[in-house]
Hints:
- There is one protein chain.
- By secondary structure, this protein is an alpha+beta fold.
- It has a single domain (48-166), classed as Muramoyl-pentapeptide Carboxypeptidase, domain 2, CATH 3.30.1380.
- It contains 5 helices and 4 strands.
- It has helices at residues 8-37, 39-65, 72-81, 108-115, 124-138, and strands at residues 91-95, 99-104, 142-148, 161-166.
- A 4-stranded antiparallel sheet has the order 1-2-4-3, with helices on one face.
- The protein is globular and about 40 Å long.
- The termini are far apart.
Amino acid sequence: MVNERLxxxxxxxxxxxxxxxxxxxxxxxxxxxxxxxxxxEAIKYDREAWRKFAPIEARRIMEARGLSPGGGLPALAEALxxxxxxxxxxxxxxxxxNTLTLEMKGCRVQEARRRKGxxxxxxxxxxxxxxxxxxxxxxxxxxxxxxxxxxxxLAADEFCSWRFTVS
Length: 167
């Protein structure tokens, strides 16, 4: 059993480490499929993996945070704050009566690619599935729209943005 007498700082450090491992695994998985079948095929499988994983992640966060299904945009905002990505990527969440906007202020994947002189990874089609499935698991009335995401033309300091609405 894990030592349960860890400090808050130790727990946060572990969570960030686990999040980095999770993202590294996601990248290794993608690269393996890409090497075997090509980029388009890898993106196709990536979308399907996210279609399955995103609602699982949402439901587990909701359970851990005591959120009930159907909680609308406030529940989505809370769940987004506790995604694995939130431990790695700086993000900004703005919420109004019927709209939630999520803007990535930093993206570990895209930042690494840019440091290496590579083009941004074209993740829009994956993000539409990922964020859509995550949001619908929180509240089936929530729809997602991409504001901007690679392969869109972004400035050097820009990353993806998403708009969620309740119908």
